[in-house]
Amino acid sequence: MPIRSPKNRSDMNGFPRYLHLMRKWIDLPPVWLLVFVVIAWMQGRYFSLGLEFGTTWARFLGGVLVGGGIILMVLAADEMRRQRTTIVPRQQATRLVTTGIFSRTRNPIYLGDLMVLSGLILTWSAVLSLALVPIFLWVIEKRFVLPEEEHLSRTFGAEYARYCERVRRWV
Fold first, then answer.
1. What is the pTM of this model?
2. DSSP calls for 47-112
3. What is the pLDDT of residues 12-42, one digit of tens each?
4. d(CA 143, CA 140)
5. Whose CA is closest to 123, among 56, 33, 31?
6. 16: helix, strand or coil
7. What's the mean per-residue pLDDT of the chain?
8. What per-residue string of b and e applies to 99-136 under the rule 16 or more CB within 10 Å gives b?
């Protein structure tokens, strides 16, 4: 067993503790959303290659998607607050939330994130950034949705299985 000096504190994976803490607070869905939003904005602003969606309909639809996404996130956060369970991924859920917006989609916050990203891409006419939408979906699903579903299945068993039969993952 290696001896840990104060200068070389590391967790069990061999990474310095500060990197583990950074991962804990940086590897969160809002941070991933921000990264993808910044990439989309930069593409639309500096690398548009003359491609555009058309201003009126794209901005209107983009605004609807952004607004709808924010509403989904607020409804979900409020429902989780009322149920007194955590909104933070990778923390232990104390209750299975199946009411409110969760009766329509199992992942309203992630769906809201996806809608906000899509809406901003339309608003900024960042045509090439449309490719970011399925990539963002894949990242969120692999890093957060599937591990959360696994945890909820272990924690709530048959109750969670019945919930999954009634309510779809996305829409």
1. 0.84
2. --TT----HHHHHHHHHHHHHHHHHHHHHHHHHHHHTT---STTSPPSS---SGGGGT-S-HHHHH
3. 455 566 665 556 667 889 999 999 999 999 9
4. 5
5. 56
6. strand
7. 88
8. eebbeebbbbbbbbbbbbbbbbbbbbbbbebeebbeeb
